[in-house]
Amino acid sequence: MKKLIITTIVSTLGLFCADVEAGPTYSFVNITNNNAINAAIGEAQLFVELSDPGGNQVTFTFTNIGLEDSSITDVYFDDGGLLGIATIDDTHPGVEFSQLATPPDLPGKNNVIPPFETTAGFSADSDPPVQPYGVNPDEWLGIIFDLQPESTFSGIIGELDLGILRIGLHVQGFSDGGSESFVNNGHCNGGNGGNGVIPAPGALMLGGIGMACVNWLRRRRMI
């Protein structure tokens, strides 16, 4: 039943995609399900937006859009046409990250097929204390990658869509003290070949849908 609920949340998110001028935004799907409520919170609140800063680079901007306690504390990348991390933009107040995550591999990595294998050097985590300095609600983190010479911004989008490149998140700081892992889900393309994203109002709508499911799960647990 829990898996059905989570699948319904993810499917519903995909129905409310819309276009804005920036690159595509991707949602995340839970792969650990240590707690169904926490899994639903992450799927409702966590997003990554791609943008092209030029200079054969790509920017991944991670956001936590919602009110429920949660903190992105580790970010992992698996393969693709990335060359290496150029810059970590943690200028948002309260967010502090450094390259190389601890643990070095995404927790629950074997729960996906094929298993999630973090590429050497392609990870980052929040500085101690990890939860306060992670990406909490209404905060963001940018990670800028150099691309391999033959790679392009549109090519990176294609790799994400095909699962050649994958992004993993380890999230802590839920209200019960638990943690969960997530991997990027499909992006909201609005039918325009990967150029659509979730605008702020749409993202808030998605968060509302997800949190309605969270509240339903909580009520079920209390019965």
Compact overview of the structure:
The chain is α+β, with helices and mostly antiparallel strands.
Mind sketching the topology for me?
Elements (H helix, E strand, L loop, with lengths): L1 H12 L11 E6 L5 H10 E6 L5 E8 L6 E8 L3 E8 L7 E3 L23 E4 L3 H4 L6 E8 L5 H10 L3 E7 L7 E8 L12 H23 L1
Helix pairs in contact: 1-2, 1-5, 2-5
Largest sheet: 10 strands, antiparallel
Which residues sit in consecutive blocks of at least 5 with pLDDT less than 50? 1-21, 189-208, 218-223
Structural class: alpha+beta
The CA-CA distance between the termini, in Å, is: 15 Å
Mean pLDDT: 83
Our count of helices gives 5
User: What strand order characterises the main sheet?
Assistant: 5-8-3-2-1-10-9-4-7-6
Number of strands: 10
Radius of gyration: 16 Å
Give the percentage of residues in beta strands: 25-35%
Description:
It is a single chain. The chain has helices at about 1-15, 35-45, 130-135, 155-160, 200-220, and strands at about 25-30, 45-50, 55-65, 70-80, 80-90, 95-100, 125, 140-145, 165-170, 180-185. Helix 2 (about 35-45) runs antiparallel to helix 5. The chain is built from five helices and ten strands; from the N terminus they run αβαββββββαβαββα. Strand 9 and strand 10 (about 180-185) form a beta hairpin. Helices cover about 25% and strands about 30% of the residues. It has a ten-stranded antiparallel sheet with strand order 5-8-3-2-1-10-9-4-7-6, sandwiched between helices. By secondary structure, it is α+β, with helices and mostly antiparallel strands. The model is unreliable at about 1-20, about 190-210 and about 220-223 (pLDDT under 50). The chain has one domain.
